[in-house]
Specification:
32 strands, Immunoglobulin-like, binds copper (II) ion, binds CU-O-CU linkage
Amino acid sequence: MPDSSRFTRRGVLAAAAAGAVTASIVALGGWRVTRRPVLSPETGSGSGAQAGDALDRRDLAIPRLDTGTVGADGVRAFELVAGAGTSSFVAGTQTPTWGYNGAFGGPTLRAAQGERVRVVVRNELAEVTTTHWHGMKVPAAADGGPHQPIVPGDSWTAEWTVEQPAATLWYHPHNHGTTEAHVYRGLAGLFLIEDEKPPADLPLPRDYGVDDVPVVVTDRSFTADGAFDERRRDASGMLGDTLLVNGTVSPRFSATRELTRLRILNGSTARSYRFQLDTGPLVLVATDSGLLPKPVSVAGLTLTPGERAEVIVALEPGQTAMLRSVPHTLGLLSTTERASGTRDTFDVLELSRANADDSAPPGTASTAPATLTEMNAWVAAGGAFAAPLTDPPEPDVRRTVTLQDNKINHRRMNMARIDEVVTVGSRERWLITNEHFLPHNLHIHNARFRVYSIDGRKPTAELRGWKDTVYAPPSRTVIIDVEFGTSTDPHMPYMFHCHLLQYEDQGMMAQFVVVRPGETAGPLDTQAIGDGGSHAGH
Ligand code: C2O
Ligand code: CU
């Protein structure tokens, strides 16, 4: 077997000056292949959270649900404080971490379509950060991208009207040049959108933390003294050997109902996962930007960084199921596949349902718990979770997006440049081609899209719903039909970029403004450029 690791990671680290590590590793092709964790979870078995280990499992942490407070002005208001703290992921160790309203992660925010929401974000960190609402259609000034920096000690307020249907969105920092580090240190949370009026008999689990469960999957490496290892780096970024699910190592979830809805976010900065259930197919009910009209059964589900999916897991009393990430392909050369972590196997989450009386704890059920039989019968009788997915109409505008090493359309991110101008309401078809040999994906702010084709072929079931992030395999063309939000602002841009955050930070990002028909784009808001640009780290 050809070994791409003649340059071992430690060797490269030892040989390279600290500041130039990333570039050296990438240039040498010196991927890490050893997968031995520095620390082992709890039992000290020494093999990490790999499949097959008999580990002591911990109860899955459930991020606090925050529905904000609705004031006299009718606005649903939230407060987030970004700060530093300490977390214990592995017995006997303390890890310095960052979080919103806590030491790690962030609360799950929830609002409904049609509501006016306001979020005040305070930065108690020692450096500039931003908070972006990934997947949200928002006015550009409320987007929380690199043009909305929050200096230490300061607060920033974003306000908008939720214009999109039910979806599992998320929020995370987006300061140009430091996004990867800020997310890796722990700043990330879910933002759930509910439909204005879901059908009263909608047979989807929706009791948060009971049968509607967030599953934020991230991977980390630890240093010998228990800190997150930010220097451990592969071709595609920081690949960890230990999974944290909502911050829990080796998690288990005790189901109390027949159906459990998992809202899975790949919150990793670089790693992709292919999720499978050891008891049978996954029942997919939603992709990034919302519910499918009806459930579809899939053998597995690949999520690259930033992508989400909602699945339903059905368990009989006494039954246990393991959600795993299994070896998969990203369409790379085999050495690159290995270096991108696609050969790895992880136990992600053990789900088990007790035998005993498991009627819902009092006070938690807002609706009668659904069963698989009911769900299928409801759908068979014509019930739909969301509006039918029809083929997108012919586009008004076509754009080409090519991805090169740290570039989009051969240019690196420039905060002062408008790369694309979108006219509000126009239907756009984007042709995305990854011209690089490494894995990249594309995320577009203030938008949702449908995958039209991948290399001329119709997308598989897992890619047929509404999305905001899509994987772009090397040397292939992904065509998407994009629907943008309704806000316009000729002076403030949105981003589109690779969501493998190392690449985003290094410049694989570009800017677009949304204007009214006939409106001229630019000039960009110079205040924001001055603030954001001075913290770009390049
Ligand atoms: Cu999840 Cu531009 O970000
Ligand atoms: Cu990329």
